[in-house]
Design a protein that fits this description.
heterodimer, B: mainly alpha
C-alpha cells in the first residue's frame, strides 16, 4: 500500500518536473516569437518587401500576455517572485514555517485566478479579437491555467516545507 | 462614486494594512498587492474579484510594456555575445589609470551599459560577475566592491533607454522621447559623482592603479567597441525622430545586439542564445506580473478616490514648486525602499501627478524626479533589487554593505537636489533637440 503511494508520488513529481521543463521551453519560444510581429511591423512600414499587416500589433500583445503568465508560473515553481525580507535569519524549521504561511497566501490568489478565471474565459467564449479575429478565450484561458499551475507548483513546494518542518532537516 | 461602502480613510487602511501585513510575512510583492484588493472586492456590493482578473488583463494588454522584455533581451544578448567584454576593454583604456582603476571601470562600464540596456538589474547581475571577485582579488574591500557595483547599476534606468521611462511614459502619458533626452545629463552627472567617490575611496584606502593605456590601445579598444556604442544612437535617435515607437526601438535594439553577437563579434552559440531567452522570459514574467496586480491595487485606490483625498490634505500645506519637488522625491524614496520601481510608478506616480500639476511642474521634470528617486530605491533595503543581486553574487548580507552604500548615496542625493531645484538640468537637452515634446 505504502509502496503504491510512493510510486504514485514519484510519478507525480516526475510529471511536475516535466511540466516545469515544458513551460520553460514555452517561455523561450514566446520571447523569441515576440520579436517577429514587431519586426514585421517596422519592416512593412519602411520597405516594400512585405505588406503592412494590421494584425501585428495585436498578435504581439497577445503573445506578450502569455509570456508574462508563463513567466509568473515558472516564478512560483522557482520561488523567484520578489519578496521583502525583514526577518532575522531563521532556522530550518522557522524558515519552513514562514514559507508555509506565505505559501497559503499564494494558494489563495491561485484559487481566485482559477475560479474567476474560468468565468473570465466563459465570458470570452464567443468573442473574437478586433484585428486578428482570434478567439479571445485563447488569451483569457491563461488566467485559470496560471492559477491551476500555481496550485500544482506551490503545493509541491509546501509539501517539501512540511517535510522540513517535521524533520528539521533540509530536503 | 458615492455608493462605496467604505470611506477613503477606512479603505486605504484596509488596502495598505493587508498589503504591508502580507509583505511582512514574506508573501511575494506581486501576490500581496493582488490579495490586498480582495477584502474590498468581496465586501463591496458593486465589485467582485473579477475586477482583479480584468485589471491584470488590461495592464498586460499593452504594446508599450512589450519594450520591457526587449530591453532585457538586449542586455542578455550583450553579455553572452561578447559585447560587454569589448566595452570592458574600452573602459580599461579610458579610466584604467585613475586611482582605483577597476572600480572606475566598473562605473564607466555601467554608463556604457546604461546607454544600451534599460535595465539596472541586468547591469547589476552582469557586472557583479565581472567585477566583484576581481576587485576583491586586487585588494578592494568586499563591501566596497559590492556597493559600487550595485550603486553604479542604477544608472541604467536613468541614462536612456530606460524601462522605467517607458513605463512612466506609458502610464502617465508623457513623451518617452523627451524622457530619454531628459535622462542624459542627470545620468552623466551621477556617473561623474560616483567616479569622484571612487577616487576618494581609492586615495584613502590605497586601492591599486593600473598603468596608463597608450593611444594605440585606446584607439584599438574604441574601434572594436564602435558598433556596440552605436546602439544608444539607434534607439534614442529612432525614438526622437519618430522612426519607431518605444517598443519598436527596443525591438531594433534586440535585432542589432543579435546581429553583433552572431555576425560581428561571433561569440554567441545556441546555448548562449537559449540562456539569454530563458533569463529574459523569467525575469520579464516576474517583473511584469507585478505590474498587473499593482494596476489592480491602483484601480482600488482610484475607486475610493484616495489620491484626491491625499491631494486635498497636502495642498493645505501650501508648498511651492521646490518644496513639492522635495516632497515627491521623499515619497518615491520611501516607497522605493519597499516596492519595485514599476509598481511604484503605477501606484504612487498616479497619486502624485495631480500634486505636480497643481504647482505647474513640467511633466518631464516630475517624471525625472520620480525616476531618479526610484532608481536610488534599487539599492536601499529592505527591498533594493540591485543591492540584493550584488550581495548575492558577493556573498555578503545587505546590512554589511549598508555603510558603503550610504556613503556613496550621499553625493548622489546632491544631484537629486540639483535636479529638483534647477529643472534645466533635465529640461535643457529636450528643449534643444526636440522642443515639440515639451508642453
Amino acid at each position: 500500500m505504502s509502496d503504491a503511494i510512493s510510486v504514485a508520488r514519484g510519478r507525480w513529481r516526475a510529471f511536475v518536473a516535466w511540466y516545469a521543463w515544458a513551460l520553460s521551453w514555452l517561455l523561450v519560444v514566446s520571447v523569441a516569437i515576440l520579436i517577429i510581429p514587431v519586426s514585421l511591423q517596422i519592416f512593412s512600414r519602411y520597405t516594400e518587401l512585405i505588406p503592412s499587416y494590421i494584425w501585428t500589433e495585436e498578435m504581439a500583445r497577445f503573445l506578450f500576455i502569455w509570456m508574462i503568465m508563463i513567466g509568473a508560473m515558472v516564478g512560483v515553481r522557482e520561488g523567484t517572485h520578489f519578496e521583502v525580507d525583514v526577518w532575522p535569519r531563521l532556522g530550518e524549521r522557522g524558515g519552513a514555517a514562514l514559507r508555509i504561511v506565505s505559501g497559503v497566501a499564494i494558494l489563495v490568489l491561485a484559487l481566485v485566478f482559477v475560479w474567476y478565471g474560468i468565468e473570465f474565459t466563459r465570458f470570452a467564449w464567443n468573442r473574437i479579437s478586433e484585428l486578428a479575429e482570434l478567439p479571445l478565450w485563447l488569451i483569457h484561458i491563461a488566467w485559470p491555467l496560471t492559477g491551476a499551475t500555481w496550485l500544482v507548483f506551490q503545493g509541491e513546494r509546501m509539501r517539501d516545507d512540511f517535510g522540513v518542518l517535521a524533520s528539521g532537516q533540509p530536503t | 462614486m458615492g455608493t462605496a461602502a467604505f470611506s477613503a480613510g477606512a479603505a486605504s487602511l484596509i488596502l495598505f494594512g493587508v498589503f504591508f501585513g502580507l509583505l511582512a510575512l514574506r508573501v511575494p510583492v506581486a501576490f500581496a498587492l493582488g490579495l490586498a484588493c480582495l477584502p474590498m472586492l468581496i465586501v463591496e456590493e458593486h465589485l467582485s474579484p473579477m475586477t482583479l482578473v480584468q485589471e491584470t488583463f488590461n495592464a498586460y494588454n499593452s504594446f508599450i510594456l512589450l519594450a520591457v522584455p526587449f530591453f532585457l533581451l538586449t542586455a542578455n544578448l550583450m553579455n553572452v555575445g561578447g559585447i560587454t567584454d569589448r566595452l570592458v576593454r574600452l573602459s580599461r583604456a579610458m579610466v584604467g589609470h585613475f586611482p582605483g582603476s577597476l572600480a572606475q571601470m566598473n562605473v564607466l562600464l555601467s554608463i556604457f551599459f546604461a546607454g544600451i540596456s534599460g535595465s539596472s538589474t541586468a547591469d547589476a547581475a552582469s557586472q557583479g560577475k565581472i567585477f566583484i571577485e576581481a576587485q576583491i582579488k586586487e585588494g578592494y574591500d568586499r563591501s566596497f566592491s559590492i556597493a559600487i557595483t550595485a550603486v553604479s547599476a542604477v544608472l541604467a534606468v536613468i541614462i536612456p533607454p530606460s524601462i522605467l521611462m517607458i513605463v512612466w511614459g506609458g502610464v502617465l502619458t508623457v513623451s518617452i522621447g523627451a524622457l530619454f533626452l531628459a535622462g542624459v545629463i542627470p545620468g552623466l552627472l551621477l556617473g561623474v559623482v560616483q567616479m569622484a567617490t571612487v577616487h576618494v575611496y581609492a586615495k584613502l584606502r590605497n586601492y591599486p592603479t593600473y598603468p596608463r593605456s597608450n593611444l594605440r590601445e585606446f584607439l584599438l579598444a574604441a574601434a572594436v567597441s564602435v558598433p556596440a556604442l552605436m546602439t544608444p544612437f539607434i534607439i534614442i535617435g529612432g525614438k526622437i525622430f519618430g522612426w519607431f515607437t518605444a517598443t519598436e526601438s527596443a525591438c531594433i535594439a534586440v535585432l542589432y545586439a543579435g546581429v553583433l553577437s552572431l555576425f560581428v563579434y561571433r561569440e554567441m552559440n545556441l546555448k548562449g542564445l537559449h540562456q539569454a531567452l530563458v533569463e529574459t522570459g523569467k525575469f520579464a514574467g516576474i517583473a511584469l506580473f507585478c505590474v498587473g496586480t499593482a494596476s489592480a491595487f491602483g484601480w482600488m485606490l482610484a475607486y475610493y478616490q484616495i489620491p484626491k483625498v491625499l491631494l486635498d490634505g497636502v495642498q493645505g500645506w501650501g508648498m511651492g514648486i521646490v518644496a513639492t519637488g522635495f516632497f515627491i522625491a521623499f515619497a518615491f524614496l520611501v516607497v522605493g525602499c519597499f516596492l519595485d520601481a514599476i509598481p511604484a510608478i503605477i501606484i504612487v506616480g498616479t497619486i502624485l501627478e495631480p500634486l505636480a500639476k497643481a504647482v505647474h511642474m513640467d511633466p518631464v521634470h516630475f517624471a525625472m524626479i520620480g525616476i531618479v528617486s526610484l532608481a536610488f530605491g534599487l539599492v536601499t533595503p529592505p527591498y533594493g533589487l540591485c543591492l540584493m543581486i550584488s550581495c548575492a553574487i558577493g556573498r555578503l548580507r545587505m546590512v554589511d554593505v549598508l555603510k558603503d552604500v550610504t556613503l556613496m548615496l550621499i553625493p548622489m542625493f546632491g544631484v537629486l537636489a540639483l535636479i529638483i531645484m534647477w529643472p534645466d538640468v533635465v529640461l535643457w537637452l529636450p528643449r534643444q533637440i526636440s522642443p515639440e515634446f515639451l508642453k
